[in-house]
């Protein structure tokens, strides 16, 4: 695997949650059970934040851009949730607890390090809720780290993808973007990137190898029936 194809340097841009960690739903459910929060009620009250119905007034989007104080957001969310023990949901430290089960998937880190060692530029592009990251793994893995709340932009806004490409000194056409959410991958493809919709490490590794193939042209893998580059 070589990060240069026909003289063109390649870039690999990866999401964090759900790609470099186990699936998002697993981590969230582990937190809900540990905090004794009503699971079905959680999904009911949180649905408007993710189904597009709040549009530009979405506080989650504001949090991801760093426009809302984390503690303020924690208090607002805790007030909406319902415990299974009859007491209040503790607001302080809620986001830390929410992300406490997002352990590193070391095989994905190794895949990205392999791409970097092969000459590809690597970047993390993550929407943050003000949560902590395992930054001890970042220096050996990434040339650039883009956290939404630190740059005032969020996925799937075009500008944060272009900002990440600029940090790598590459065009979108020379980059592959890995994410577990289809709408984030779709936006990357609209900008000219090769999209990999992450479902598991083995499939993502195969798609990444194809993108970085030294004798290839950097074209995406054969599209599946949805038009998505097959992982």
TrEMBL record:
Region (Disordered): 212-231
InterPro entries: ACAD10-like, HAD-like_sf, HAD-SF_hydro_IA, HAD_sf, PGP-like_dom2
Transmembrane segments: none
Pfam families: Hydrolase (PF00702)
CDD domains listed in its UniProt record: HAD_sEH-N_like
NCBIfam families the UniProt entry points to: HAD-SF-IA-v3 (TIGR01509)
Protein name: HAD family phosphatase
Annotated source species: Nocardiopsis tropica
């Amino acid at each position: 695997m070589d990060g240069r194809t026909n003289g063109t340097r390649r870039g690999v841009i990866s999401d964090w949650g759900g790609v470099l960690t186990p699936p998002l739903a697993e981590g969230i459910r582990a937190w809900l059970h540990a905090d004794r929060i009503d699971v079905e009620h959680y999904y009911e009250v949180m649905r408007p934040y993710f189904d597009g119905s709040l549009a530009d007034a979405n506080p989650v989007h504001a949090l991801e851009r760093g426009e809302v104080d984390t503690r303020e957001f924690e208090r607002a969310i805790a007030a909406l949730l319902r415990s299974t023990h009859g007491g209040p949901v503790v607001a302080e430290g809620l986001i830390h607890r929410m992300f406490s089960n997002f352990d590193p998937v070391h095989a994905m880190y190794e895949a990205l390090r392999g791409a970097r060692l092969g000459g590809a530029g690597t970047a993390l592009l993550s929407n943050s809720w003000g949560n902590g990251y395992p930054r001890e793994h970042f220096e050996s893995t990434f040339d650039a780290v883009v956290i939404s709340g630190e740059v005032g932009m969020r996925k799937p806004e075009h500008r944060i993808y272009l900002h990440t490409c600029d940090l790598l000194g590459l065009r979108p056409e020379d980059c592959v973007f890995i994410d577990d959410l289809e709408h984030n991958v779709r936006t990357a493809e609209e900008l000219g990137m090769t999209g990999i919709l992450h479902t598991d490490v083995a499939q993502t590794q195969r798609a990444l190898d194809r993108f970085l193939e030294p004798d290839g042209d950097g074209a995406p893998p054969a599209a599946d029936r949805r038009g998505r580059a097959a992982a």
